[in-house]
Every structure is written in C-alpha cells, then in structure tokens.
Amino acid sequence: MIALGIETSCDETGISVSKDGKILSSEISSSVHLHAKYGGIVPEIASRYHIEYLMDVAEAAVRKSGVRYRDVDVIGVTYGPGLCGSLLVGISFAKALALALKKPLVGVNHIAAHLYANFIRDNAFSQPRHPFMGLVISGGHTSLYLCKSITSFKLVARTQDDAVGEAFDKVAKILGLAYPGGPIIEKMAAAYRGTDYIKFTKPNLGAGSLDFSFSGIKTAVLYYTEKNKIDEYQKKKIAYSFQKTVFDFITERAVSACKKFKVNRLVVGGGVAANKALTACLAEKCKSKNITVFIPGIKYCLDNGAMVAVFAELLYKKGKKTKMNLTAEPNLEGVLCR
Ligand code: KG4
Ligand code: ZN
To answer: 164 C-alpha vs ligand 2 centroid, how far in Å?
Structure first.
C-alpha cells in the first residue's frame, strides 16, 4: 500500500510517501527561521508559509519517491492538535488531492502520529508491538498514553502547565539563547565539564500522580539566573542541571506508568525524543526494570510527513476512512483519527 502523508500542524511543512511502512521520500521545509526573532512561533507566519510552499514540498516528495500521484492508495493528513490556520492549509490540500485523485482520506492525530513514527520500517530500528505505553514529549505536549491496539489510545497522564519542549525553549530564552532552545540546551549540557549540578526541585503533584509539570523548574532557573552571575560556564551548568532534572522526572513517570498498567514496552515520540541525554537516561533506567524502549530515528522525532503517511497506512488497513467534512481540531487529545 502506498500512502502520502501531509503534516502542517506547526512550523514544518512535511510531505512523505510511504509504501508498506517503508519511507520512499520525506520532504520537509520549515519556517523556523522566520519565527526565531520573535522567540516562538507566530501562527499567521506559519500558515502563510505552508500555503506558499506546500505544493513545492509535495512535488519534491512525489518525484523523489519514484511513484506517481495516481499510484497513491491513501492520503493521510494531520487534523489536530496544532495551530488552527496551519492545520486548515494541510487539510484543504489533502482534500483537493483526494478529490482530484479519487483516493480515500485519513485524518490523523498529530500526537499519535509521533508515537507511530516508531512503526516506520527502518532497518536500523526494531518495531514495537502492542500493548505499549506511549510517551509524547514535544513542543506542545507531554503526555502518556496506554495503547492496547492500533485503534486504542487512552490518555493516562498529561502536563498540568508547560510542555517539556516549551520549557526547553523558555529556559533557552532566559539564558539568552536562540529559538528553538531544545537542541541548543542539549549541546550546552553536553559541553558542561563540572562534577556537581544545581538541584532544581522536581514537581510534587501528589502521591500516585503520573502527571507532569515543568513551569516550577523553569521558574527555579529564572530565580537562579537573577541571584547569580551568569557566565558561559554557569550557562552550561544550568543547561546540564535543568536537563538532568527534567529527564530524571520524565523517566520516573514513564517507568511508573509502565508498572501501573503492566506493560513492558515504552514507545517514545516528539521533538524532545531527539535528545541523546534523554535516550541514555531512559535506556539506563528502563533496562533494570525490564522495559524495552523504542525511539524513532532523529529525523522522525521532529515533525515530519513520514509518521503521518505510515500511521494513515495502518489506520486505513484497519478500515478507517475520513469524511470530506474533516476540519481542524486544534485542541484534539484522546482521539486517534476521524
Ligand atoms: O515534535 P516537535 O517537532 O513539534 C511539536 O509537535 O511541538 O517538537 C518541537 C520541540 C521544540 O520545543 C524543541 O525545542 C524541542 O522539540 N526539541 C528538543 C530537541 N530538539 C527539538 N528538545 C530537547 N532536545 C533536543 N535535541
Ligand atoms: Zn510534533
């Protein structure tokens, strides 16, 4: 089966062609450089960028895949969560393609697609099986989902304030670093050569809670920078300490969720999963608990069309097909597809 996946939920215009779970092409054009000077995404700039570049990205993806538009069996598109204007551009494009090619449409949940990026048939990575605990760590979400089958998606924990990627971006801003902050904080943390670290307190959300919270840690970083002289060494130390606190906390939560719901597979997705220190932290703590961790290759952690294409293939094989009245659902959470 050949799928064409369209991803426009935020600042990445992504289109991919997949065949039976393998990626034939995955093209991405990002408007991140246009948002950098504002220190965050400006929704209108993102939507305008999608409408300007979507056709070029699609043409490149189809050309590089070696298949023709008419060979495509199903069109997958992200319909939420995300920025409303950006989602609408991708959805309208997907509908136009579906009508022109007389092919079925599958509207997919962006968060679930991040998890199902692990089902991309990439020789370098083994694939998970159900049931598993899904951990989504991105710029907009930090949540845990119990996934018992391809069509079962149960929210078990979420962040009560900031998403983890958002916290990375805000801490980078406090330290005077560029946007997006995640990759920069990772580099600064890796360059820290000290032996001690600042013990930022982990959030206390009550006994038994699996939820997340990051605004307290972010505020602790802010207070620390106000009370201390911040030179390059201090910036590295803060980056290291912040990252360690956050990743220890996320790992503890993920392990507790696996234990509580009696699953021994942890499937991770989203932009923050691209961080090598997180991968190491999860691998170390999960190994001793007999939990197998799945993380996609870096290019499939960040927003991309490939995860949408492969997820649409899986859903279509299960009989899912979306009506042409599909619309954007910016706050979509526990629903897999329409
Ligand atoms: O999944 P994604 O591409 O978009 C959303 O769906 O939000 O995630 C983007 C987020 C940004 O907040 C960015 O700072 C963070 O992922 N990020 C990272 C890294 N690469 C991207 N955070 C930590 N370490 C990284 N290497
Ligand atoms: Zn994302």
So the answer is: 12
**Average pLDDT rounded to a whole number, residues 193-199:** 94
Q: How far is the CA of 67 from the centre of ligand 1 (A)?
A: 31
CB environment 32-49: b (16+ within 10 A), e (fewer): eeebeeeeebbbebbbbb
**Residue partners of 102: CB distance under 8 A and separation at least 6:** none
CB 272 within 8 A of CB 138: yes
- Does the structure show a pLDDT above 80 at 334? no
Sign of the Cα torsion 166, 169, 172, 176 reads negative
Other CB atoms within a 10 A radius of the CB of residue 122 amount to 18
Alpha carbon distance 183, 274 (integer Å) = 8
Cβ of residue 163 lying under 6 Å from some atom of ligand 1: no
Structure tokens of 77?
A: 């598109």
> How many angstroms separate the most distant Cα atoms in the chain?
63
């605004």: which residue's tokens?
Answer: 215
Residue 108's DSSP bridge partners are 78, 337
Asked if 202 and 217 count as a contact pair (C-beta separation under 8 A), the reply is yes
Please, which residues bridge with residue 144 across strands?
A: 135, 157
Instruction: Give CA torsion, residues 141, 181, 217, 206, to 10 deg.
Output: 20
User: For the stretch 300-319, what's the b/e string if a residue is b when 16 or more beta carbons lie within 10 angstroms of its beta carbon?
Assistant: bbbbbbbbbbbbbbbbbeee
Going by DSSP bridges, is the β-strand pair 12-19/2-7 parallel, antiparallel, or unpaired? antiparallel
Contact 94, 309 (CB under 8 A): no
Write down the pTM of the prediction. 0.95
* Residue 291 DSSP one-character state: -
pLDDT of residue 159: 97
Residue 296: asked if its preceding bond is cis (omega within 30°), the reply is no
Mean of the per-residue pLDDT values of the chain: 96
Mutate-to-test residue for ligand 1 from 168, 187, 240, highest number of ligand atoms within 8 A of CB: 168
User: Can you name the residues that pair with 12 across neighbouring β-strands?
Assistant: 30
Could you give the CA distance from residue 82 to residue 330 in angstroms, rounded to a whole number?
5
